Amino acid sequence: MMKIVDKIIWRFPLLFSVTICIVNLNLGIVKHDLPGLDKILESVITFTSIIIGVLVALFGVVVTLADKDIMIKLQRNRGDKIIFKYSLETLITNFILLIISIIMQSVLEFSPTLKYVDYCVYTWVFFLIFSIASSIRTIYYLLLISFNQDDKSNRPKSSLKISNEERTKLRMKKVPPQKD
């Protein structure tokens, strides 16, 4: 059962983006003459730049967690390879989307009457949807890793012995207010 769920999660961005593209191709929702497409392209460029930045920052956090319980558990189950695969896919698709969006800005200005322009738009829609779905999946998993607490049951017991009286004194002890 878990292998089926893993395959669905792995294929979800591709299946979702192909489905949206087929719907777009049949209904012609997003074409080169869509009003405000230039503004949408600018927003997508900003969006992909932010996603790329977030991914790079989360990679830095994951690297610092190499010795933590969550990473050890992931390495045992080869989950670290899956996270790497998701992250690499998201990073590559966001870079492709960024490049296509920049190219689309020029293509729409020069010759919107040519037939290939609509194919460029359909390709752009595919990468847009794929990138969004892949980014959500990858950032979700990276955030789960980043915010996972260490398993407290594996921590060594403290050798420090505090009596109940000392514990009460420590709780009752007030810190004097600081003077400015």
UniProtKB/TrEMBL annotation:
Disordered: region residues: 151-180
Domain of life: Bacteria
Sequence intervals crossing the membrane: 12-32, 44-66, 86-104, 124-147
Biased composition (Basic residues): 170-180
Keywords, ordered alphabetically: Membrane, Transmembrane, Transmembrane helix
This protein's name: Uncharacterized protein
Organism of provenance: Enterococcus hermanniensis
